[in-house]
Design goal:
Number of strands: 3
Helix content: 25-40%
Strand order of the largest sheet: 1-2-3
CATH topology: GMP Synthetase, Chain A, domain 3
Organism: Nothoprocta perdicaria (Chilean tinamou)
CATH architecture: 2-Layer Sandwich
Number of domains: 1
InterPro entries: FSCA_dom_sf, MIP18, MIP18-like
Biased composition (Gly residues): 1-12
Region (Disordered): 1-21
Order of helices and strands: HHEEHEHHH
CATH class: Alpha Beta
Oligomer: single chain
Largest sheet: 3 strands, mixed
Distance between the termini: 26 Å
Radius of gyration: 14 Å
Protein name: Cytosolic iron-sulfur assembly component 2B
């Protein structure tokens, strides 16, 4: 599978911040926020397997790193294999989940654990680029896949 690329600009903020019935409000204290975010991230579904990111060891504690004073959250994730074709989609799902769950003042950084993916630099660059993330989420198919990764399993 190739990575879908969004074309054109536009504001996808509404797609990023769309309310999610499954997304609980995140507690205000840094310690409580950390535990809540760790729970949110680990329950994200893998796009290819019927398992969560935690079950596949894609995300592990200590994760995420919260700096309340600087309003930043940083999450490293480890793809299951060095050539994982879903790394960008997994990172995008983590980023969207956090953006939807955190107060707007937080800057969310999602990146691959150093040395764990063949295209680490390229994937990290895509995930750090606000315009690329917004463009990707304007792609209705890609947004649907991200939302499936974020939905609760029955």
């Amino acid at each position: 599978r190739g990575r879908p690329r969004g074309a054109g600009g536009g504001a996808a903020g509404s797609r990023l911040r769309a309310p999610s019935a499954a997304a609980p409000e995140v507690p205000a204290s840094a310690a409580a926020r950390f535990l809540s975010l760790a729970h949110l991230i680990r329950s994200i579904n893998d796009p290819e397997h019927p398992l969560t990111l935690e079950e596949l060891n894609v995300v592990e504690l200590p994760c995420p790193q919260v700096n309340d004073a600087e309003s930043t959250v940083s999450v490293a994730f480890t793809p299951t294999i060095p050539h994982c074709s879903m790394a960008t989609l997994i990172g995008l799902s983590i980023k969207v989940k956090l953006i939807r769950s955190l107060p707007e003042r937080f800057k969310v950084d999602v990146h691959i654990t150093p040395g764990t993916h063949a295209s680490e630099h390229a994937v990290n660059k895509q995930l750090a680029d606000k315009e690329r993330v917004a463009a990707a989420l304007e792609n209705s198919h890609l947004l649907e896949v991200v939302n499936q990764c974020l939905s609760a399993r029955s």
